[in-house]
Amino acid sequence: MREVAIIGVGAHPSGRFLDKPLKALAYPAIWGALDDAGVKATDINVAYVGNSLGGLLTGQEGVRGQVVLQHSGITGIPIINVENACASAMTALRGAWLEVASGAADIALAVGVEKMNVGDNARTIGALSGVSELDLSELGMQFTTSYAIHPKINLKARMQEYGWTAADFAKPAVKNSYNGSLNPLAQHRKPLTIEEVVQSRVIVDPLTLLMCSSISDGAAAAVLCSADIAKRFSSKTKITIASCVLQSGVYRLPGDERPDSATTSSQAAYEKAGVGPKDIDAIELHDAMAPSELMLYERLGLCGPGEGPKLIDEHVTTLDGRQPVNPSGGLCSRGHPVGATGLLQIYELVWQMRGEAGARQIEKRPKVTMAQNQGGLLLGQDSAVYGCTILKS
Amino acid sequence: MKILNPDNLRVPTEPGATPCLLGNRCRDCGSVVFPKMPVCPSCHKNGNMEEIEIGRTGKLYSHTISYFAPKGFTAPAFQIFVDLPEGPRIFSLVGAGFPVERGVLEDGMEMRLVVEPLADTAEHKEELTYKYVPAGKANGARA
């Protein structure tokens, strides 16, 4: 396998863009990445396009990648459409990475794009239900419920078990809203207080509105090439993919003692990259419901059971900390256009590693970073998809 | 009225018989799954699954109140996971007649299966499905 570099990234801001179709959302992300990389549209050998809900919500059920890329002047090459729920973009990145790593392509493009605002939120929420196995969603189960009480995470039980207070529970949302307030691409740019988060309306007990990611449109893209030719295009900080791991959920019967899949996928990513949790300088993780960040700290090996709130209190994971988490604002502040999220995470990490993140730049420029992205829900007590990518500069 | 998923739920017509869920048990390793699947998710062998009746009772594993309803459902509503004595842990809604408020349900409490319309809405009032209610408590009683 060849070493693979990320030489360009681009993104469309996250938010509500009712009038923009998928291709209009993707265009600035794609050309942002091409221009950033210094490559032409005709330099791209292969492209992977992640999108989750476009079929149901826009009616473009097939060939969304070809439609989106033709609009941006990229045609003729192999284009692979990727649907993997909220981890579609990380899955697209993995496809592009494998193409270059294997030697099949020299330059590959990964795109993630999602259009969720269609003027009818009930329809959007209905489409989102479709990324859970139907046996669950047909009974009215929603993602918010899964974060609250589903065995795979069960934040309500964690709160009781660890003695987390409502304030502890609100801390990730508060921390990330501050980061998001400094990010021009973020959907929500108002810094929140503990009181505001705790007192916002309950959606699914114990999760309140300001702990939940919102309906969002957006896109992100990355240009990858073989590391040995990276210099030919870009003089910016060389960033390579140290590992890019994808796992699917496993069927878990009660009493199953195996480690959960967020843990196993991150462990595999650490192992392949030859690093451990302590070596990671900055992390973007999948906080679709903000308090899940506290659980993910444990699963990514950043702290022991129940110690999540301490990492925020002691300024470990804050922007000024030793291991800032979600410097972009995360899914709740930056936004969660589901099929774009994995590449929005990569976009943020690349900017941080280059020292180009402006007001939210981590002071000690990160050299080893991780993006953790997951999605979907299976009957077998697990998410459907777990992705974890480690970058090095 | 029709049963939403007759492959999952048996509603007997004989007097005295009670409804139950239909799951699969692996003849090799004994794992019980719901809904049914042809390959055992534990030992991954094909063709060893047999149908069994499960879930007449259960224990409440976790519960919440959803104040938000997807289209075709109503809010607030309880949403729960139930541990069935045969093995599976399943998602369920709670049967009618219990006030949807904190303190009514308690994790660990005994539950029993009832058959009711999926939701009291135009979309789902004609579809029968399984739900669980606290066992041995009069409707409306507090835990």
Description:
- The complex is a heterodimer of chains A (393) and B (143).
- Chain A has 393 residues and is of the alpha/beta class.
- Chain A is 36% helix and 20% strand.
- In chain A, helix 1 packs across helix 3 (64-71) and helix 4 (88-102) crosses helix 16 (341-354).
- The longest helix of chain A has 16 residues, at 22-37.
- A six-stranded mixed beta sheet of chain B has the order 1-10-9-6-7-8, with no helix packed on it. In chain B, strands 2, 3, 4 and 5 form a four-stranded antiparallel beta sheet that branches.
- At the A-B interface, helix 5, helix 7 and strand 5 of A face strand 4, strand 6, strand 7 and strand 8 of B.
How many extended strands of chain B? 10
Order of helices and strands of chain B: EEEEEEEEEE
How are the strands of the largest sheet of chain A arranged? 3-2-4-7-1-8-11-10-9
Mean pLDDT of chain A: 96
The CATH architecture of the largest domain in chain B is Beta Barrel
State the secondary-structure class of chain A.
alpha/beta
Name of the CATH superfamily of the largest domain in chain A:
Thiolase/Chalcone synthase
Q: What is the alpha-carbon Rg of chain B in Å?
A: 16 Å
Task: Give the uncertain stretches of chain B in residue-range form.
Answer: none
Architecture (CATH level 2) name of the largest domain in chain A = 3-Layer(aba) Sandwich
Residue share in helix of chain B:
under 10%
Summarize the structure.
By secondary structure, chain A is an alpha/beta fold.
Please name the defining characteristics of this protein.
heterodimer; A: alpha/beta; Peroxisomal Thiolase, Chain A, domain 1; nine-stranded mixed sheet; two-stranded antiparallel ribbon; 11 strands; globular; B: 143 residues; mainly beta; OB fold (Dihydrolipoamide Acetyltransferase, E2P); four-stranded antiparallel sheet
